[in-house]
Specification:
Length: 191
């Protein structure tokens, strides 16, 4: 239940000869963080523009050591090319394209973005998405884990997607008031 290098010795007792000692070495692979659902693709389906869409999932640390989890947005190649083009067009502007990469807006958010997950505990995460633009949006998000003083390693890579559509009705007011009156002399017509 842990991703560690393990060294041990196996003692083999032989009745009619010398005992043998074999060195055993093993190393765990993968991650001890388990998701409640597949995180390869988090699809919000069809959602109205200017509303927030939500998806939830749970990550559980089934290991014996605490892990610091961090979710990060990774811009697409197309978004990076746009930033580079804009930087080349506006070469007189101070700064560089790498500084502009941090300003690429993400439609989605994963909350909490960073958390320390103690051993044998779980945390619920919420994926929120909202935009005023019509169309399909797909973004790459990566979850990395740091265990102790180890280097961060990517444990999940997710494609978050949603097709934002325009609602057929657009309200001119935020609130509507209705009044219902009953008159026994005028029964409600049916039929």
């Amino acid at each position: 239940d842990e991703i560690l290098k393990v060294n041990d010795k196996l003692h083999i007792v032989i009745e009619e000869g010398d005992d043998l000692v074999c060195a055993l070495k093993a190393k765990g692979i993968g991650t001890t963080v388990e998701a409640s659902r597949s995180l390869d693709r988090i699809d919000h389906g069809n959602q109205f523009t200017n509303t927030t869409s939500y998806q939830t999932f749970r990550l559980e640390n089934k290991g014996r050591r605490p892990q610091k989890l961090t979710w990060e947005f990774h811009p697409s190649e197309e978004q990076l090319r746009k930033v580079e083009k804009n930087a080349q067009k506006d070469s007189n502007r101070p700064g560089n394209a790498k500084a502009d990469v941090a300003q690429i807006a993400s439609v989605f958010k994963i909350e909490p973005a960073e958390v320390l997950l103690e051993p044998w505990t779980a945390m619920d995460f919420v994926v929120k998405g909202s935009t005023s633009k019509v169309g399909t949006v797909e973004e790459s998000w990566v979850c990395s884990a740091v265990v102790g003083k180890d280097k961060p390693c990517n444990i999940y890579s997710s494609q978050v997607a949603c097709n934002f559509i325009v609602p057929l009705l657009q309200f001119s007011q935020d609130m509507f008031s209705f009044q219902s009156m009953y008159d026994p002399k005028n029964p409600v017509l049916s039929g």
